[in-house]
Sequence to fold (138 residues):
Amino acid sequence: MMRTNGIERMRWAKDLIFEKTSGLQELAVGSLHGEPYIRTSDKATVGLYLSVPPNRETGRYDCLFKGYLRTCGGYNTAEQMQALADEMQNIADLLKQLESAKILLTEDELNVFVGELKSIEEQQIPAPQTEQKEDKSI
Fold:
């Protein structure tokens, strides 16, 4: 698992998260502060969380991944409980991989990676279609 820099490591993390969650979770850019976060589908019961705080000691940004349970209310059958347990185990395994990578970014690397994510998102959003309506008042 040799990754040369923080950008390469984040690209690896992005692909790994998407692959291991079958597309239910993906790295994205927040609209409020423009920071990376993990967008989670409503279909996922167990989620991943990402924070990227500055580290005063190293002068870099630490990529901290955590897991959380999105919902656990209600009564379930054994089959439903097993599906929940399997999803939790999948996220736990993924979280171990992400934590062990110890991803650190310089400010420039963080900005470049966020720019890449924004570019990808902009390409995925279809342009609004404008229709010219016929003016019948004349």
Q: What stands out?
A: The first helix runs from residue 6 to 20.
